[in-house]
Automatic annotation (TrEMBL):
Keyword Aminoacyl-tRNA synthetase (UniProt): no
Keyword flag DNA-binding: yes
Organism: Megamonas funiformis YIT 11815
Highest taxon, organism lineage: Bacteria
Protein name per the record: HTH lacI-type domain-containing protein
Keywords for the protein's UniProt record, in alphabetical order: DNA-binding, Transcription, Transcription regulation
SUPFAM superfamilies assigned: lambda repressor-like DNA-binding domains (SSF47413), Periplasmic binding protein-like I (SSF53822)
Matches recorded under PANTHER family: HTH-TYPE TRANSCRIPTIONAL REGULATOR GALS, LACI-RELATED TRANSCRIPTIONAL REPRESSOR
A Pfam family: LacI
Domain (HTH lacI-type): residue spans on this chain: 5-60
Family matches, as InterPro entries: HTH_LacI (IPR000843), LacI/GalR-like_sensor (IPR046335), Lambda_DNA-bd_dom_sf (IPR010982), Peripla_BP_I (IPR028082)
């Protein structure tokens, strides 16, 4: 395999010193003749020289790389968030390095250590589901002990992180459930996310609060704990349909899609027989056979605000004790809900 071209190779080809080559390449060669610069530029192009970013980073103490450790790249919420973060990072001349923890804390910590070794300028982190309080502390302590600017996105199970962007999930679930209540539904099932996650607990709380505020008794038998997956959404819906519900609030769109599959298998029709509301407003939500009523998370704003937080932490000369931003969700009404007959 051909070895990488170095500054020494260019110096040998052109006859100029390594110092001269370095000054030209770093645009610090004001006193060097234009002819010399042109000779060096031609050699650089002919030899295919590319700067060693790691070495440059060591000198400048910055890499222009931001890491994003996400829990499940298959989940469209996180993959779209990654796209938004990448676009926002480019505005600051940063590159985004994406790592998938597969909802596994050990893998998450491994990625954090790797990103630290690469001397990234900052890290976005969405915690692995099912992490214990001790595991969450381990990840946060690692970031803070190594003085890595970070911003948690959406997940902070035990309210430990100092810098985070999230959404008012209680309000979002409240809007979803209230929408169903206004359509006349009273027996409303709920398929939650994994209740170890703070966002899942908030969505369940919003569901319960909407029922309570509208004088509907909370029936724990109509609550099924899922894990934000299509499979658990389907199983949860199977369970709820046996209890004669007329509507379902699913705590994310993947669970709602699983519920839609279950409803179809039971030879029922949405929304004629069952109304359903999801959460996230992933791209597929509007493209389903029955376009899904759902709660939209402001992913563009999440990406923008999270990147601003990292930029502040990277460039501020003052110590920023904490930065917590909570954004507002929005109910998007489509064809999967209707007034009960």
């Amino acid at each position: 395999m051909k070895s990488r071209v170095t500054i020494k190779d260019i110096a040998q080809k052109t006859g100029f010193s390594v110092t001269t080559i370095s000054l030209v390449l770093n645009d610090k060669a004001n006193h060097i003749p234009r002819e010399t610069k042109l000779i060096i530029a031609k050699a650089v192009k002919e030899m295919g020289y590319r700067p060693n970013k790691m070495a440059v980073g060591l000198v400048k103490k910055q890499s222009n790389i931001i890491g994003f450790v996400l829990p499940d790249i298959r989940n469209q919420f996180f993959s779209y968030t990654a796209k938004v973060l990448e676009d926002e990072c480019h505005k600051y001349d940063w590159n985004l390095l994406i790592c998938n923890s597969d909802n596994n804390h050990k893998q998450e910590l491994k990625h954090l250590k790797m990103l630290c070794d690469y001397m990234v300028d900052g890290i976005f982190l969405s915690m692995a589901a099912n992490s214990t309080e001790k595991e969450v502390e381990e990840s946060i302590n690692f970031l803070e002990d190594n003085k890595i600017p970070y911003c948690l996105i959406d997940r902070d199970m035990f309210d430990i992180g100092k810098y985070k962007i999230s959404v008012d999930h209680l309000q979002g679930a409240y809007l979803a459930t209230e929408h169903l209540i206004k359509l006349g539904h009273k027996k409303i099932g709920c398929i939650t996310g994994p209740l170890i996650l703070d966002d899942a607990r908030q969505r369940l709380a919003g569901y319960k609060q909407a029922l309570k505020d509208n004088g509907i008794k909370i029936d724990e038998n109509l609550i099924f704990e899922g894990d934000y997956s299509f499979e658990k959404g389907k199983i949860g819906c199977d369970n709820l349909l046996a209890k004669n519900i007329t509507a379902i609030f699913a705590a994310n769109d993947f669970s709602a899609m699983g519920a839609l599959a279950s409803i179809k298998e039971h030879n029922l029709i949405v929304p004629r027989d069952i109304s359903i509301v999801g959460y996230d407003d992933i791209a597929f939500a509007s493209l389903l056979e029955v376009p899904l009523t759902t709660v939209r998370q402001p992913i563009d704003a999440i990406g923008q605000k999270a990147t601003e937080v990292i930029n502040q932490l990277v460039n501020s000369e003052e110590n920023i004790d904490s930065k917590i931003i909570i954004l507002e969700p929005k109910l998007i009404v489509r064809s999967s809900t209707k007034t009960i007959s």
